[in-house]
Amino acid sequence: MKVAPVMSGVLSLKAERHEALFGHCLHRVLRTLATHSTVLHAGKWNQIDAAAGGFIDVHDADVEAALDDGRAMDTWRRAIRAQGGDPEAPLPVAREQHVVTADRDGVLVAQEALPFGIAAWRLGAGRARKEDPVHHAAGIELHAKPGDTVRAGAPLFTLHADEPARFARALEAVEGAYRIGDPGDAIEDGGVLIADRIGR
Question: Is the dihedral of CA 142, 150, 16, 96 positive or negative?
């Protein structure tokens, strides 16, 4: 799983997704389609383009099927081209990486969501102020999830940033936020997936 906005979005379009987060996002998409049946396209308001070559009634759109069969990715590519972009261009890659490895054999029993989100922000994947730039290649790549068996020296997660100076504060954020236990130990809840909603 990638804790990085651009990569996570593209992986979802490719049906390579974190199922818990995807379930929430799918619910939000369906709710949005149910209340806002039009989108701005070519300077006019039209119904959402969920099928190649035309606009359809969003209330009949099967969002999950469109993701699974590639129609969503096709629509994304057309949207990129319509804005003068190249959907086949490679995604940005951070100049620096820092890999954190397991210090022992065992089972990953804890991995708290909020500290990892803060760490990703400190790496440049978010803004402290609205005028701050976002580094689109920044983020965290998670190689193991709670419940996975890990071996000493195996990578647990990789930090991605353009500036190596960002790693120290990101590592501070996740200190104590993950733990390796023994087989049979209880797997700890990583915390709420969605802390709050702003607006409707």
Answer: positive
Q: Pick out the chain residues at pLDDT < 70.
A: 1-63, 190-195, 199-200
- φ, ψ of residue 45 to 5 degrees: the values are -85, 125
C-beta of residue 46 within 8 angstroms of C-beta of residue 55: yes
Domains and their CATH numbers in the chain: 8-82 (no CATH), 96-181 (3.90.1170.30)
Distances (CA, A) of 117 to 11, 40, 162: 18, 32, 17
pTM for the model stands at 0.69
Q: Alpha helices, DSSP H only, in 53-163?
A: 63-68, 71-82, 113-120
Confidence (pLDDT) at 11: 60
Ramachandran angles phi, psi of 160, nearest 5°: -120, 130
Going by their DSSP bridges, the two strands 139-142 and 96-101 should be labelled as: unpaired
